[in-house]
Amino acid sequence: MSRNNRYAQQQIARLPEPSDIGRMIIRGVPRFAKRNKIMSGSYIIGILTILLIGSGTKLNLDQRRQYNSIMQTIDLQAEFDASQEYYMANNAYRASKGWFTCDGLCQRNKQRMEETKYRLDLIRKEGEARMSDAKSVAGLFSEVGVGEVRYFLLLL
Question: At 99, is the pLDDT very low, low, confident or very high (cuts 50, 70, 90)?
């Protein structure tokens, strides 16, 4: 056996079967927790704290007014309209696109789709920035912050 052939054989890696991935995760979680005790413990304590706090601290009247006034500045209709425009432009582009080619009409539709996607992303970014400002007024351990964390924990 030649030297290059032995080197090539050593480089071959065996990938796990898809059915084994679940077992690997189940075995890996306790190992990770044992190696990273502080991080794992902090994570569990944090989740338990948020779940046991209840509904979070109540916002005072000034905080609630400020939170609501910021949230009302988010233009949901503009985001809806922009997402509709993107949906239509994307469908037009996909309908005009060939398997391997994209003619002039396809290129125009692609350009229009990219422009509407850019506008939609700008509107979403602005809305997310305003939501972040409103959440910073409320705070992480407020009823708003705890409610959002609970929502995301339920998604897991």
Answer: confident
The amino acid at 60: N
The encoded tokens of residue 119 equal: 């506008």
For 102, the enclosing helix (H) or strand (E) is none
Mean pLDDT (whole number) for 29-50: 83
Say which DSSP state 57 is in: B
CA-based R_g, the chain, Å: 26
- Contact present, 90 and 113 (Cβ < 8 Å): yes
Q: Is the pTM of this model over 0.85?
A: no
Contacts with 144 (C-beta within 8 Å, 6 or more apart), sequence order: 56, 59, 67, 135, 138
Tokens representing residue 100 in the block: 């391997």
C-alpha pair distances (Å), 69 with each of 47, 52, 113: 30, 30, 33
| Residue 153: C-alpha distances to residues 36, 77, 125, 146, 148 (Å) | 22, 29, 24, 10, 9
Quick one: pLDDT at residue 111? Answer: 95
